[in-house]
Structure formats: structure tokens, C-alpha cells
Specification:
336 residues, alpha/beta, 5-stranded parallel sheet
Length: 336
């Protein structure tokens, strides 16, 4: 593990395609090690005195808390810049923001819009930049997911992984890449128009072949879920999208809701995963409004499945912090 981690010092963490399978596994191993230290109450302030900047053009509970707690555990200070706290792309160019922050901080996290923004930050900053989410990729989430799967099953290679719902954006893209890199058999289950971009599929097919994995794209849930070990979904519509989008997505994706019937198609012992937040009931303001408007009790997953013993969603949520800590520790220089 240490040799792989030494090669990560000074690198940015922008998308999993930038890393070898061995490097990704080394990060997961490091996360497991740091998690064990945390559970045992053993300090690991290996980056004492350093500082990181957290740029959030899109807010988040798990990503912000994960970066802040991880930074603190590593001995670092952090500055949180919310959507109103930075002039990035408004009064100051991305390149200028990167060069300013790179003079003050040892690392920069970005959560926001296009992948080109985080790539440009990394090009100009002169320090490691970490992708907390863009429209195209969400690599820190996938590290947490893979750590969670390995903790539960004891392995990654050969796991049959099914993603239900809209697979065109950051989660579908990143899970497909992660499975291809680490040897899981990936299936996207959705109407064909919700499959990932063809060019990315082609690239991932090559990666999957190198790692003994398969990629499938299936519109029939029963066929897709046969033999599934992991069933994964995400919310169908992001905040800020128009009402017409809600209506279209609910119409198209309702057959792909993860419910008791869907779980029954999978392997015995199959687990449910979700990156959160989730509309599994109507107990949030948004969930209540949508469920009332469209006559639903839940959206992408039912409360029955979400709250079942098969659900690993809160293990995933915790593992965001441990894997983000590993990314920061390694790219800032892990001595082991």
C-alpha cells in the first residue's frame, strides 16, 4: 500500500479514471486503516499545521462534514466558502482564484458544476485539488461506496452491482468507472435514454475488460436484478430543476423504484445503497410537496427498503469521512 500511496503525493483527485486500480485500492486500504485508528481513539494528526480551502458552489451535509472532520483529525485547519463566500467565476476568474488560494492553502476542495471547473482549478492551483462533486463525476462518493461493499462482502471483484434510475450524470458515471476499475460487474437499469454517455461507456468497457468485469445496460428490472448483490439508486431530480422535469422523470423512472419487489429479484443477502439525501418518505419539505402533488408515498426507494436490515446507507455516509480523509492524507504526503 505504501508504495502506491507515495506516488499520490502532490496529485489532485478529480476523477477515478485518472488513477490505476492499484492506486484506488491503496486509498481504500488507507481509509480502512484510518477508520480503525479513529475507532480506537488513536490520534493521526499527520498533517499538523496545514490548511485546506473548501469551495462549495453546491451545498452538502455529508461532503462538508466529511471534509471538515477529516481535516481536523489530520491536524489541519479548514476554511469553508459557501456559494456566497467566493468570487470564483463571478468577479474573479477560476484561474486567478486557484492561484490565490494555492498560495494560502495546502489543498483545495471544490463541489459545484462542470468538471472543467475543478480541472482548471487543479491546473492553476499548484496544490492538490479534490473533487467533492461535479455534474460529471463524484469520485469521493465511490471510494466510500467501495469501502462499504468490501466491509460487508469481504471483497470487491465479482460483486454484481446494479444501478437503478438515471445513470447519465455524476453517480451513474462514477459508479460505472469505479466498478470497471475494481472488477465489479456493473449493470445500469433504466430506459435507454437514461444510460451513460456512449464515449464513457466505450472507455469503461476497455477498463472493465482489463479487470475481469462486465458492463451491462438493461431496461427490464427483473432481468437486470437477477443475481444482484448490490442495488444502488439516487434521487431522480436535483434541486432547481423545473416542474416539467419532475413529471417526466417520475413517469419514466417509477418502474425503476427500489421496493420490496425489486429486492426480491436480487440474490439472497443483497444489500441496498444510496448516496443520500433520499426521498424515501414525505417527511421533508421537498418530499412532502412532491409526494402530495404526484400521489406518492416515496420516490426512488420505498421507506420499507430504506429502513430495512439490507440497507447500508448510513455505513456509506460515515465512510465518506474516512475515504475523504484518506484522499487528503495521501495527496498531501502519507508517510505511513
Amino acid at each position: 500500500m505504501n508504495e502506491q500511496l507515495k506516488g499520490l503525493k502532490g496529485r489532485s483527485f478529480l476523477k477515478l479514471l485518472d488513477f490505476t486500480s492499484e492506486e484506488i485500492l491503496a486509498l481504500i486500504d488507507l481509509a480502512a486503516h484510518l477508520k480503525a485508528l479513529k475507532k480506537q481513539g488513536i490520534p493521526h494528526r499527520m498533517h499538523e499545521g496545514k490548511n485546506v480551502a473548501l469551495i462549495f458552489e453546491k451545498t452538502s451535509t455529508r461532503t462538508r462534514c466529511s471534509f471538515e472532520v477529516a481535516a481536523h483529525d489530520l491536524g489541519m485547519g479548514c476554511t469553508y466558502l459557501d456559494p456566497t463566500g467566493s468570487q470564483i467565476g463571478k468577479k474573479e476568474t477560476i484561474a486567478d482564484t486557484a492561484r490565490v488560494l494555492g498560495r494560502m492553502y495546502e489543498g483545495i476542495e471544490y463541489r459545484g458544476y462542470g468538471q472543467e471547473i475543478v480541472e482548471q482549478l487543479a491546473h492553476y492551483a499548484g496544490v492538490p485539488v479534490w473533487n467533492g462533486l461535479t455534474n460529471e463525476f463524484h469520485p469521493t462518493q465511490i471510494l466510500a461506496d467501495m469501502l462499504t461493499i468490501r466491509e460487508h462482502f469481504g471483497r470487491l471483484k465479482g460483486i454484481n452491482f446494479v444501478y437503478m434510475g438515471d445513470a447519465r450524470f455524476n453517480m451513474g458515471n462514477s459508479l460505472m468507472v469505479g466498478c470497471a476499475k475494481l472488477g465489479l460487474n456493473f449493470t445500469a437499469c433504466a430506459p435507454a435514454k437514461y444510460f451513460p454517455d456512449a464515449a464513457l461507456i466505450e472507455e469503461c468497457q476497455r477498463v472493465a475488460a482489463e479487470n475481469g468485469a462486465t458492463l451491462r445496460f438493461e431496461s427490464d428490472p427483473k432481468r437486470a436484478l437477477a443475481g444482484a448483490d448490490v442495488i444502488y439508486t439516487d434521487i431522480w431530480v436535483s434541486m432547481g430543476e423545473s416542474e416539467s422535469v419532475w413529471e417526466e422523470r417520475l413517469t419514466d423512472l417509477t418502474p425503476y423504484q427500489v421496493n420490496a419487489t425489486a429486492m426480491s429479484f436480487a440474490s439472497e443477502g443483497a444489500v441496498f445503497m444510496h448516496c443520500l439525501p433520499s426521498y424515501h418518505n414525505s417527511e421533508t419539505a421537498v418530499g412532502k410537496e412532491i409526494c402530495a402533488k404526484y400521489g406518492r408515498e416515496a420516490l426512488e426507494v420505498t421507506d420499507e427498503v430504506f429502513e430495512s436490515p439490507a440497507s447500508l446507507v448510513f455505513d456509506e455516509a460515515e465512510n465518506r469521512m474516512h475515504t475523504i480523509k484518506a484522499v487528503m492524507a495521501a495527496t498531501l504526503g502519507y508517510e505511513g
